[in-house]
Amino acid sequence: MSAEEKTQAKTEQAKGKVNEAAGRTVGNERLTAEGRADQAKGDAREAKEKVKDTFKH
Q: Is 53 within 8 Å of 2 (Cβ atoms)?
């Protein structure tokens, strides 16, 4: 996994967790949903890079 892609995936996952927690704290469903979506994007990016790494070797 390239370092840049890995960093971006982890950043999206962390941002998503923060947004989801903030949304739950204040009762904002939209913010909670955005947080979950950001986490999913990060997970998908990470999975894509792992697949690329698998076929590289």
A: no
Hey, what are 19's tokens?
Answer: 């947004």
Quote the CA–CA distance of 45 and 43 in Å, as a whole number.
Answer: 5
Q: Note the pTM of the prediction, 2 decimals.
A: 0.83
| Residues 26-40, mean pLDDT to the nearest whole number | 97
Amino acid at 23: G
Contacts with 12 (C-beta within 8 Å, 6 or more apart), sequence order: 38, 39, 41, 42, 45
Residues 6+ apart with CB under 8 A from 1: 46, 49, 50, 52, 53
Structure tokens at 24: 């739950």
